[in-house]
Amino acid sequence: MKRILLPILLLGASVLELAIASDAQSPPRPNVLLIIADDQAWTDYGFMGHPQIRTPNLDRLAREGLLFRRGYVTSSLCCPSLASIITGRFPHQHKVTSNDPPLPANVPPAQAYRTPAFREGRERMDEHLEAVPTLPRVLGEHGYLSFQAGKWWQGNFRRGGFTHGMTVGDEAKGGRHGDAGLKIGRETLQPVYDFIGEAQRAEKPFFIWYAPMMPHEPHTPPERLLAKYRGLAPTLPVAKYWAMVEWFDETCGQLLDHLERQGLATNTVVAFLADNGWITDPVTGHYAPKSKQSPYDGGLRTPIILRWPEHIRPAESKRLASSVDLMPTLLRACGLEPPAGLPGIDLLDPAAVKKRQAIFGACYVHTALDLDNPARNLRWRWGIEGNWKLVVPSPANEPNAPVELYQLAADPFETHNLAPKQAARVQRLRQRLDAWWPGQ
């Protein structure tokens, strides 16, 4: 057995040493389980310090893995965020910027979703995703079986490169964002268990996309969980959301336990993040300002966890991480070279993590104005350098919004806009943001 020791990365008070074992016969490639929370704020985990919400299974995952507390998604809306996770590209690169294509004029939304024009628009969005490599497609080229379960916006699961899946892409039956796939977690986990069994019988490594619509609305937790939070939360809508978070955590624990029972935990890379944030409006129960669809950390920030027993030493990193990093990270963990042109880094490469100085992203309109020109749909671009965050609005879609600058270490909930007092810093960060993507 030969051991390859990667460089040491100092992470505050902790030290990360990655040891990847291999032998001359090329060990079996690891399985991959990607867990994606749906509409959950970065604060709403036990391991992130929430005083009431219980997430014992994700807490354990965080303890056993490499935890990036300062992870971010590329956009604070489900569809473009998920498209970035599976392609390793920003929305302006894969062109899936919004949840929906343009809606036909003078047609009520409930009817517009069933029109030929809407279906044609959805087809164009699906074609954009098919035009670039995806994580399951690349893995499939190297013998992996893959399974889609949960949220999925891009038609039939095969269009994303999955070999197996639950979403058939029938718009008439909820195909807009998952149809049958939305049963996972809320109703059953059996399809995932069945797929794992099939992959074992075929003696194939596997990739699982577990993206249940949890804790996403509707917030309908079991009463046994809701009862825990009725007296703790400020209002019933908040209690329902908190209970949904614990329910989601339970399903994650069930999946992780299944891997252990099947003897697969040691050779499975588990990755975790949320697709975007969420802050519950205490009165309505819907999302509050500065969360979903916003350029603030309440909509963009998420913990990112990577666990691979005996290969990734448990540690916490204060460095910046992005959802576009997952594709190159997971492919390299599987011994594969990522496609050319990916903007992300390998989060298991300490030198690359240490070298990074800034991350970027953008937020777009919910319903697209133009399916082929991402800039037409742009609302804000944002960038973070160290603890400084710049938010730049689009003149076209946010004409009255100001440029904003926040010092996240001192003001993590972005309440004090320092842009008027920090003109030089705004200019310098704006130059970095323009170099990333000018938004035109």
Descriptors for this entry?
440 residues, alpha/beta, Alkaline Phosphatase, subunit A, 8-stranded mixed beta sheet, 4-stranded antiparallel beta sheet, 14 strands, 29% helix, 21% strand
Overview of the molecule:
The protein has helices at 56-64, 78-87, 91-94, 109-112, 116-130, 135-140, 190-202, 223-229, 236-261, 297-300, 326-333, 350-355, 423-436; strands at 2-11, 14-22, 31-37, 66-72, 145-150, 164-165, 206-211, 268-274, 301-307, 315-322, 358-364, 378-385, 388-393, 404-407. The chain has 440 residues and is an alpha/beta fold. The chain has a domain at 26-101 and 134-336: 3-Layer(aba) Sandwich (Alkaline Phosphatase, subunit A). The protein has an eight-stranded mixed sheet, with helices on both faces. Strands 11-12-13-14 form a four-stranded antiparallel sheet, with helices on one face. It has a two-stranded antiparallel sheet with strand order 1-2. Strand 1 (2-11) and strand 2 form a beta hairpin. The relative contact order is 0.17. Mean pLDDT is 93; it is low at 1-24.
